[in-house]
Write the structure tokens for this entry.
Amino acid sequence: MPQPPLPHPPLPERAARGLLGAPIVALVLYGAFGVSLSQLAGKAIRPLSARGGRALGRWSYGAWTRGLTGLTHRLYGVELVLSGAPLPAVRDAVLIANHQSMLDIPVIVDLAEAAGRGPALRWFAKDVLKYVPGVGWALRDVAVMVKREWARDQRTIEQVFAGLMDSPDPFWVVSFSEGTRITPEKLAASQAFSEERGMRPLQHLLRPRPKGFAATVSGLRPRLQEVIDLTLGYPEGVPDLEHLATGQARRFHVHLRRYPIEDLPAEEEALGAWLQARFEEKDALLDHFYREGRFPSA
């Protein structure tokens, strides 16, 4: 079963903690507006200096991510507990991760900042989010906005990947290959799907959707160096963004596995099978984590 959610404190304490979270909320909102304005300015100067326009966009996005991670570490004592492979510093990579909470996103940002790759992060995000003032506007230049219907998304994805391939800037493209955050209901449906197709039902994860992963690896392969597999665990229950903003969630565990791109198969069907095997391994890792409170040391 999925890890249960981390409970919230009683309402009076929750309200008091909300005041503590004000700096984080302000940085997210006002920082997002700042990133949006910088991206617009960067686009305006690109006809004069393509390099300068890209640099301005990278700087603003990086300042935002550094500010968020720095504030949570200093204000709340947030700690990232890493295990498995060494922290990567490769230029171009695809990251695959399990998805339990919106908090997974700042955890991955934290890890990327530790590796010096915060400004390189690129995300898949729901298309509707681009209309959210501030945060949604900031996502337009750092996310692949998708409707989660392959027939409608394929052209958009191909255009974004072409831009990444043409750019001299590094990229880390993040794929939550389950396609959605896990819930007990979604897990039950995923297990039924696995049984119908003769696959072993996963206990802590949804079966990944291979098409998007295969398209990402195939589209970016000429530049890719690694696929980085992240397994995220929360020992006291799955927190949400409010837990982070109010200092109630402080220890985040990430188990890393790294795969050189030359070790991955080339065919789409084989890439899908490769991804399924990784998620079966991730399921075993999470089983160990929930029993022991930590990931294996290697």
